[in-house]
Specification:
By secondary structure, the chain is α/β, with parallel strands linked by helices. Helix content is about 45%, strand content about 15%. Helix 1 crosses helix 11, helix 10 runs parallel beside helix 12 and helix 14 crosses helix 15. The protein binds NADPH dihydro-nicotinamide-adenine-dinucleotide phosphate. NADPH dihydro-nicotinamide-adenine-dinucleotide phosphate binds next to helix 1, strand 2, helix 5 and helix 9.
């Protein structure tokens, strides 16, 4: 039996957060691997947060939305409320050596991740936006504090596993991230342009939160993941590729210098990479149904169609430009996705708005969190002005 590790789950009421708690229960019940959940953070789903707190008895909870209802909690659980609640929870609750599962969606996750690193915690990272927008700062502080950033994203978990087969610094030719292709894998440019929110949310293989599901539909998710891989594995843009693999069985692969290719395969179930991040670097017995080899007839791969999915190429642009370009990409994408969900822009405009933001806003060195938040704000303001009827000059550049 291993010793109990303290765990804080940021974004505990979301898709990754809920799956994380399922894995925690599985490990405790089946494998005698115990986690003490000491902190839980969410944005506005107070009912779910309270239910989790009643079950798990954390030391503290955080709820970002001050207006959201939070049912009564057992006495003794500290409550943090407001936009900085997750950061306060981390600062008050975390101890060096704890594990923080970072699954807040979007750039709201950056400050809590940095706070956890400062506290000396290892990070199991699902919140890819933290690396896309602030990768230089997050990875530098993690190195300085001597903490690990363990990938939760299935593609990056796969690459981390494949890299155990060779010397990551000397023997890797390139890494290839797989992509399901999302709901519009076979759709025409015209269909993609006018896709509805309901269309965009019908992901063929994964059940995820709304924002990442829309990112998968534009394939902006793959751009974010390529930038994430750049920061996690220290590779330049030329050595990170992506390919469509509709079955989502091969989660990514590494080509080594001798031509060997090592791939990681498993069912498309996020509980698996989550479990591996929790038990890293060791494996624990299965948390989900294994692959059925008898029913697996083909594994097909297709090149990405950059005409229909222009978002993917933005990753290389961002990696090469460096500085705050990742924050611009991420901020513009978050704003454009919000505008699409609100019915203010067409689906096809999301990627064009992000590309236009990158072209219009100069990247500067990302030395501090202020540089990152400045670029994020500029990108959001740019997208707002683009879709405002009062500012026609922006509209000209992005309308179909
Ligand atoms: P969800 O939308 O399902 O969940 C987001 C979580 O973040 C919720 O718990 C939400 O709380 C919480 N949250 C949002 N804003 C704040 C805030 N300011 N402070 C505290 N908590 C906040 O998203 P997912 O779980 O799908 O995704 C989470 C992250 O993981 C994303 O970065 C995504 O890209 C990444 N990821 C997700 C995968 C998946 O399969 N879902 C796969 C790989 C990566 P509330 O419920 O109260 O709104």
């Amino acid at each position: 039996m291993r010793s109990t590790r303290r765990l804080i789950v940021l974004g505990s009421t979301g898709s990754i957060g809920e799956n994380t708690l399922t894995v925690v229960r599985h490990l405790a019940r089946e494998e005698s691997i115990a986690f003490e959940v000491v902190g839980l953070a969410a944005a506005r789903n107070g009912a779910a947060l309270a239910a989790q707190a009643r079950e798990l008895g954390p030391l503290a909870v955080a709820l970002a939305d001050v207006n959201a209802a939070l049912p009564d909690l057992p006495t003794g659980i500290r409550i943090h409320r407001g936009p900085t609640a997750a950061v306060e929870l981390v600062k008050e609750t975390a101890r060096p050596g704890d594990l923080v599962l970072a699954a807040i969606v979007g750039s709201a996750g950056i400050a809590p991740v940095l706070a956890a690193i400062e506290m000396g915690c290892d990070i199991a990272l699902a919140n890819k936006e933290a690396l896309v927008a602030a990768g230089a700062i997050v990875t530098a502080r993690a190195r300085e504090r001597g903490v690990r950033i363990i990938p939760v994203d299935s593609e990056h978990s796969a690459i981390a596993q494949c890299l155990r087969s060779g010397d990551p610094a000397a023997e890797v030719r390139r890494i290839v991230l797989t992509a399901s292709g999302g709901p519009f894998r076979q759709a025409s440019v015209e269909t993609i342009e006018r896709a509805t929110l309901a269309d965009a949310l019908k992901h063929p293989t994964w059940t995820m939160g709304q924002k990442v599901t829309i990112d998968s539909a534009t394939m902006m998710n793959k751009a974010l993941e390529i930038v994430e891989a750049h920061w996690l594995f220290g590779l330049d843009a030329e050595r990170i590729d992506a390919i469509v693999h509709p079955a989502s069985i091969v989660h990514s692969f590494v080509e080594f210098v001798d031509g060997s290719v090592i791939a990681q395969m498993s069912p498309p179930d996020m509980r698996l990479p989550i479990q591996f991040a929790l038990t890293w670097p060791r494996r624990a017995p299965l948390c989900c149904t294994p692959l059925d080899w008898a029913s697996l007839r083909t594994l097909d791969f297709h090149p990405i169609d950059h005409q229909r999915f222009p978002a993917v190429a933005l990753a290389g642009q961002v990696i090469r430009a460096g500085g705050t370009s990742g924050a611009i990409l991420n901020g513009a994408n978050e704003a454009a996705v919000e505008a699409f969900v609100a019915g203010r822009i067409r689906f096809g405009q999301i990627s064009r708005l992000v590309a236009a933001a990158l072209a219009a806003i100069p990247a500067v060195p990302a030395l501090t969190l202020n540089d990152v938040s400045g670029a994020d704000s500029a990108a959001r303001a740019f997208v707002a002005s683009e879709i405002s009827p009062n500012l026609p000059k922006w509209r000209c550049s992005t309308q179909a």
